[in-house]
Known about the structure:
- By secondary structure, the chain is of the alpha+beta class.
- 59% of the residues lie in helices and 15% in strands.
- It contains twelve helices and eleven strands.
Amino acid sequence: MSTLDTGLTFIRNASQRVSRANGWMGNAFKGWMPTGLYARALLIMIVPMVILQTVVAFVFMERHWNTVTRRLSAAVVQDIASLIDVYKAFPQDKDRAQLRHIGQRLQLVVDFLPVGDMPQPGPKPFFSLLDQTLSSQIGRQIRRPFWIDTVGKSNLVEIRIQLDDAVMRVFAQRSAAYASNSEIFIFWMLGTSSILLIVAVLFLRNQIRPILRLADAAESFGKGREVPNFRPRGAREVRQAAQAFLEMKARVERSIEQRTAMLAGVSHDLRTILTRFKLELALIGDSPEVDGMRKDVDEMAGMLEAYLSFARGDSGEVAQPTDMAMALEELRNDAERHGHTATVVFRGLPVVTVKPASFKRCIANLVSNAARHAKTVAITGHRDHRYLTVTVDDDGPGIPANMREEVFKPFLRLDDARNQDEGGTGLGLAIARDIARSHGGDITLGNSPMGGLRASVRVPV
């Protein structure tokens, strides 16, 4: 292998490792990021502001606050060093009145204590910039044992210097050695940032609200509910999205209306022909052949009604609050009137907003399908804060796992699996799933604890 091939292989392996590391970091970053648009927008606003404020505060503290404090402390220490030089140069000033007078001119209160009045050095405060700066300047300029007190709440700073025959005590103004107005800058910086952030949050909420209304309108339309008070609002792009949603909603409703009108016409024409067949058969009289033709006509009428019901769906019905516990109890009574054993259990708040007639028909199709092939049917309803779930269990022969999606196809009949009677049209499950999906939910099939089939309907509330 040549050197060029080796280099290309190395570069390729390195790029793959970098790509994998980038993908891992991207997935980890996504895990920490909030999922909501409002939270992400706030994060986009807050993070740059916090970084900017941090950088500004650091630069200010480092280049202004520390520098000014260091220079002020150095000036105070220079004054004290000058007083010490005067003390050494003029020993004839026994009462030191002239030295105190010079200290007053320098805004310093000077006093002299016996040699034994030098306290022991205490622990240094960790966050005191004044204490650190004064200690550094005294050690650099005076180079004598000292003791300072900068922790007290007084406006004065006490400094004691060990001299040869006395202890020089100096009281200096805290403001003369410390840049005390720096907190005002930080206060104004944080205050104005907070006010601007509050204004930005309120403005952002007004911008996000039309998007949330659009999402709620789309979700309601997907559940088959009306959206009466929705209209485009907000920024231009949000208005365009809302207008596109309204146009799509109008096209879907117009398509449903056209299909319903067409089916009504087809239903009217075919029923007219079937009615004419029934009248002609009634005029012919009774015979085995006529009885067979009547059965065929009745079966054709039943299949036509089933097909029209499947094609029509639940169009035209308005969603409204419905007591699901009462609706399931009515289905149980219907099953028992037809000679089947049925039970009902409902947990949670029973009032759910659905299209009552169509949703009841959805559950009724599942119950009748279970009752057709089993002796016992158990209906269970559960409503939480997100979904309404209704399960229909039976003790029948069940459906093979590989055929549980196939049975939802229109006109499919599993004679071997479920041994359907001859009156079935193969549209019951298809109609039930179509109704469930029009409510924004779905139907799934599985194994029942009773040994047969479990049909589960779950729709959002």
